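Example S7 (structure tokens).
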């Protein structure tokens, strides 16, 4: 399958069923963020349309301590990464060039 297939899999498999879309914003036009909240789970999809870069995601629930991470890029196809530690509602990330990173409370299939 192509990268397009894996991108769709991120949204179909990792977005909570019957979820609500959350308001998001990014201070970089090459980094697009979408977020969804279900009854007990949520997912944040981060598309990095440019070069590799560091990023900080804020506004996460204060009660959250870790998130599952899945990435698709030129080198990865829906690859499960190590869990991400959340501190005071924020995470520091290294975004791979031309990639989609999904952070979720839902375990990837």
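Recovered sequence:
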């Amino acid at each position: 399958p192509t990268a397009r297939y894996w991108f769709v899999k991120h949204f179909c498999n990792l977005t909570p069923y019957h979820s609500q879309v959350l308001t998001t914003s990014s201070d970089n036009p090459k980094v697009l963020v979408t977020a969804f909240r279900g009854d007990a789970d949520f997912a944040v999809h981060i598309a990095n349309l440019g070069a590799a870069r560091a990023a900080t995601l804020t506004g996460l629930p204060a009660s959250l301590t870790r998130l599952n991470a899945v990435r698709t890029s030129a080198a990865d196809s829906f690859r499960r990464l190590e869990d991400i530690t959340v501190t005071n509602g924020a995470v520091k990330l290294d975004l791979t060039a031309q990639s989609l990173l999904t952070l979720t409370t839902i375990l990837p299939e």
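Notes on this example. The mean pLDDT is 94.
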